[in-house]
Amino acid sequence: MIELQNLCKQFTQKNGQVFKAVDNVSLKVAEGEICVLLGRPAAARPPP
To answer: What domain of life does the UniProt record list for this protein's source (predicted)?
Structure first.
């Protein structure tokens, strides 16, 4: 089993603003299960 609890990832942009890419994500993936996470393409995110 893989388990994530309260996962967060943020980037500070050149202008000093914080961009939260992931905020408070928790999930469990049991053995034999398949999990897919979808989001915006990397090219669509604001520049760092």
So the answer is: Bacteria
Q: Which two tokens stand for residue 26?
A: 């928790």
Dihedral sign of CA atoms 44, 34, 1, 29 in order: positive
**DSSP for residue 1:** -
Q: Print pLDDT tens along the chain (48 aa).
A: 999 999 999 999 899 999 888 899 999 999 999 998 887 766 556 665
- So where are the chain's domains? 2-38
DSSP symbol at 8: E
- What pTM does this model have? 0.55
Contact 8, 23 (CB under 8 A): yes
